[in-house]
Amino acid sequence: MLTPSHLRCEHAPAPLGIDGPRPRLSWQLNSDLRAQTQRAYQIQAASSAELLAQDAPELWDTAMVTSSAQLVPYAGPDLHSGQRVWWRVRVWDGQDHSGPFTEPTWFEMGLLSPGDWHAAWIGWPGGWNGRALYFRRPVVIDKPVKRARAYVAGLGYYELRLNGRKVSDHVLDPGTTSYDKRVFYVTYDVTPYLHDGANVLAAIVGHGWYGTPKLMLQLHIDFEDGTSVRILDQDPTWQVGTGPIVQDSIFDGEHYDARLECPGWDEAQVQRPAHAQSSLDAEPNRATTVTWMRPHIVDPPGGRLVAQPLEPIRVVDTLSPERVTEPRPGIVVYDLGQNIAGWAQLRVRGRRGQQVVLRFAESLYPDGSVNQENLRSADATDTYTLRGSDTDPAGDGDVEIWEPRFTYHGFRYIQVEGYPGAPGPGAVIGRLVRSDTASAGKFTCSNELVNRIHRMVWWTEATNQHSIPTDCPQRDERMGWLNDLGARTEEALYNFDMARFFAKWVADIHDAQDPATGAITDTAPYRWGSRPADPVSVSYLLIPWMLYQHYGDTATMAAHYDGLKAWVDFLTSQARDHIVSYSYYGDWAPPVGESRDGSAGTSAVSRNTPGELISTGYYCYSARLLSQMAEVLGRKDDAHNYAGIAADIATAYHTRFYDPQMGGYGTNNQACNAFSLYMNLVPAPQKARVIESLVHDVLDLHDGHLTTGNLCTKYILEVLTDSGHVDVAYQIATQETYPSWGYMLSHGATTVWERWEHATGSGMNSHNHPMYASVGSWFYKALAGINLDPAKPGFGVIHIRPHIAGDLTHASATLQTVRGPVSSAWRLDGETLTLEVAIPAGSIAHVSVPKPSVAAPCRILEGDTVVWNSGPGPAVDGITAAEDAGYTIAFTVGSGTYTFTRESA
Ligand code: BGC
Prior knowledge:
Number of strands: 47
Helix content: 10-25%
Mean pLDDT: 93
Largest sheet: 11 strands, mixed
Low-confidence stretches: 270-288, 864-876
Bound molecules: beta-D-glucopyranose
Distance between the termini: 38 Å
């Protein structure tokens, strides 16, 4: 029987605050039998779970729809703002048996139109001397509440509070955008935070990426008696003031002066001293330091209010320091043992006014103190001023526990200065802060170095998701660079669920696009770099395509199609005879000996990989991706036209850059040849020669090392693997000498560096930079062998094709796909290979079992039922075998778990 599970709306479980009118509903399938497929589905939607239970889905009932689709847009009557929709689904299997309906789940609409917003942007004109703003407003509840929702947009970052409690576990809300185009609001269910009588609604707003704190907030309360009330932020009972956050900056850190705390500022005081004018006077010692004013209505940021469409940022983990040292008296350095993104939580006890300073860094000076030189102008320093005891200014107060709200750092080391007494091991702990995308992949193999690289890659990706895919989390940058994402996207998709996160970022790119010329920008939201972007910025097209490939989701390519096309047309406008010659970065930051002295970055432009070769190749890739998307979207003319443009570029590229003498492209270096092969720019007759040149360069000229930059490092591993040289790729990937990932590890790296060199001084050398983490997807694809089929996106068809590379005796991976977990695990024991494969219900896999290294006949056994000698075999139990290109025996299997054993006959 087939039963649906993992019900999602817009890729999220039970989301609150959806503002697309036709939310997409999706599910996975479970089956106790193999090779099951969904023949039909039925979705029902109602305004309550009870109505569904009574079989009365008054909103929408699809009845039985013959379709294998597992992602279906809601198509019932138009939904209204704030409406909650309950839904459930059941499916029929290939034998026409229908399973039961799932338990109901729900989604809830946000505020669907600008007319739903009655609040205003409030704040203090020009800000308040760089201080965070504190807003408060009493709310009296005099009858039973049925439900309450807060709709909040606060820039740069805000924290919503109700009755003294922080609402929700989000931090650094909202996600960053081009605020003049889009501003995210978040919907919170605040029903459980309200109580009868006097309540206080409050928010703290910091600077974030926006610069001047401002707030927009609506509280909607529905009462049991059917009445409702809307509380808006411009009504006269709101107050604004300042508080203990006296400075907050993403790059520089936060200063919190606990002496300025005003306990009870966000609570209704139950017992008020007789002399008190307001609840805030309840504790005269402290509250008198705050002047509460009427907030002003301030300029709006300009962008549309849009429901935050991606995972919020959260504190997702806590790390205890592994080592504590005291390089100089009073200077204590905590080592988390892992480079992370986030902040530290401080525990301290001392006198009022004492100041503890926390400095964050990725590396240490030889004397053991923190080295912040590579953070460039980012101070990355938090300061905490102790509350102490206000009854005895000379004595210690209670233990104070603090962590910042509106900053984050990239660091492994925390240097603590000014700590009263001797800080113990628990004085600081690391807090891992990131967009809470779910982990999607697991990989392990028999080579511990590869496992360590995989972990380093995972940490690098994990710590560079802060509502945009950042280039690094530590220095004065933290931008979404489009060039880096050309290489990193696939790695991210194998390690995390990026469906919402990447869709959001493509919209950021679109927001920054020049509507007149189609030019996009190097970073999105646009804060750095150039417009027009470097032609390497293929991620604008690649990500929508990959969202389709991995999640079967066409929404992003459909929503931004005109923009994607305008960018390709822009490149065409720059091309002469199909060659695009402008280039800023090209294959950026290769080993420094390959770079142009004194070039941009800190000598990061390649001297050997011509910019126009890379730009032209990406122009072709972009046109091809656009053509493929046009095909999927049914835009036949565009599909044809852009395929034609791509073919013309390919011809021009080959004519211009191929040197038959050398048997390679450009300078015949690794990047030029790997790039040409990956981009499919090498005509068939030249392929073998180019591959030979590439292998020769790696093995004979560079002793098994790469010479590539941020982009071609991905491609070299892929093309070597696909051309039958997986051992050469493996050799590159497992080097321990410079330049390699192993070299980084041997110098203590726990996240991937920006440069192949070990540098710690000022300049461009982040120690946590995901562009070279691109190797991460190769582990899943080449070693464990989990690959999708471009023609059957969303893992409808899966290619399991592991490689027994180098010294490996075992590799395994699991990937949580939209259809459920796919796993592949192989183990070699002498000449006996066991391959275990699990395929989610509804999918089909082509399983390629590697041949033994010795050319001996072998038999492949599947469970107890199927035995073949090598060579084509008959279909048995729905399993067919065929010889595959002299490399493997291939089987086609439906969903289920299979174990293949290959033995020498
Ligand atoms: C970023 C890189 C990016 C480069 C392009 C650097 O500052 O950190 O990740 O590729 O700029 O110029």
